[in-house]
Amino acid sequence: MHTYFQLQYRMVNRKLTDFGLHPVFGYLLLLAGFIGLSAYLFYKTEYAVYIYIFAAYAVMVQLSDPKRNEFLRTCFPKKTYLKIRLVENGCIAIPFIAFLTFQLLFIPTLITTGIAFLLVFLNFKPQFNTTIPTPFSKRPFEFSVGFRTSWYLIGFAYLLTVIAASVDNFNLGVFSLAFVFLVSLAFYGNPEQEYFVWIYNLSPKKFLLKKISTAMICASLLSLPIISILGVCFFDNFLILIIFQILGYLALTTMILAKYTAYPNPINVPQVFFMVLAIQLPVFLILVIPFFFLQSVKRLNQMLE
Known about the structure:
Layout: H1 2-18, H2 23-44, H3 48-60, H4 66-75, H5 78-102, H6 106-118, H7 141-166, H8 170-186, H9 195-198, H10 204-233, H11 238-262, H12 269-280, H13 285-304
Helix pairs in contact: 3-5, 3-6, 5-6, 7-8, 7-10, 8-10, 8-11, 10-11, 10-13, 11-12, 11-13
């Protein structure tokens, strides 16, 4: 058991190092980011508790993959396996539990603790054996693959939209729209194999423009139900919705360009820093997007020309 967690610790440290961060600084940055996002969520909406519990569940359920846990069972005795699963879920649940306790939300704390304990004994993953249909074609594989693995997150955003409309909470509706774009950004987190770039008979500029335009169309399809519902229920705030939709497009564009700025390597610290800066202060998008575009063209020159 000790060797297993020691190996996991080394793997996480290696990922942080490859990302361009010293492990200690990386852990501190993750902690600060978690606390900051949690505080912002509870400040922004009164439904933060439900979103928070769902977020904890969504992370922990990834460790309930039957294939993964079957492998652990073959490597460890039953008692050791249960201890490993308990520690794994505990490591994920503790930050959520600590913040809920800090907020004096004791019932949600107990619910989150119960979920963590229950998932130790359950082996499943939110997926189907059949292929989930998508509103996208096969070419924009990022959205096709991402939608099939994250459909329940999109469904959760739609549920928040319905709740926002039913309780007349425009801020919650805006959060659901931002959440859809946040999930869409994650679709572009990992670089594809070089072959899937090389097969395009396009110049680097045309390739990037095609990627961006395709992403905007797909993101529009995902956000259309939210915009439609909120546009009808909060017509007076429709201009604000359009502004957030445009900001979502710009964030998605920045993410795609950041991906190919580092390609074929994963996105690292400089790209993340500029992305966060641009998202927090949209005025910087005027500088960040052209800079990323030029850097991406240089990266892709060898493959596409």
